[in-house]
Design brief:
With 164 residues, this protein is an all-beta fold. It has no helices and 14 strands. The strands form three sheets. The chain has a seven-stranded mixed sheet with strand order 1-2-11-10-13-7-4, with no helix packed on it. Strands 3-12-9-14-6 form a five-stranded antiparallel sheet, with no helix packed on it. A two-stranded parallel ribbon has the order 5-8.
Length: 164
């Protein structure tokens, strides 16, 4: 089970930042693997042409990046909840160990809008998770992984998105 974190701090833009908690939860057996995408906006609904259909929770993913990646768009639960867990397992330089990446939740309906806090996840081989609540249940959402330190160091690992 993933627990919701208590308020921790604010970033340089005065946005709420929370810390993901260590989790013993594991991905749902049989959950599809959906690749994370370049952070270029092409997966999000625009009203023009064909876009990828939003995914259902749960799904799993792998990540390998040096700046940012985004998930496929997905539908949160009817109660407006979505959880993101991840486990950072490696980096292109040993200095990655113990550093953090941020996960942001976005409402993809119309103009993309960040929802809730930015959440810090530690990269140390353990699994961490956080659940966002108060999401718009009938809007597509996506999450964004952001690494804002050392643009030359890649980090990688695995994770999953779920309802709990």
């Amino acid at each position: 089970m993933t627990t919701e974190a208590a308020a921790d701090a604010r970033d340089k833009n005065d946005d709420l930042v929370e810390v993901a908690k260590l989790t013993t939860a594991r991905p749902s057996p049989g959950a599809p693997v959906l690749p994370l995408l370049p952070d270029d906006g092409k997966d999000r609904p625009t009203g023009d042409g064909v876009v990828a259909q939003a995914a259902q929770l749960p799904f799993t993913y792998a990540f390998d990046f040096s700046s940012s990646l985004v998930s496929r768009t997905f539908w949160p639960t009817s109660g407006g909840r979505a959880c993101v867990s991840l486990r950072g397992t490696g980096g292109s330089d040993p200095s990655y160990y113990g550093k953090e990446i941020r996960v942001e939740m976005w409402n993809a309906y119309g103009t993309d809008t960040r929802v809730g806090p930015s959440v810090r996840y530690t990269l140390n081989g353990n699994s961490y998770g956080y659940c966002w609540s108060g999401l718009y249940p009938y809007h597509e959402h996506y999450f964004r992984l952001v690494k804002d330190w050392s643009p030359t160091i890649r980090v990688w690992g695995t994770g999953w998105a779920s309802a709990t």
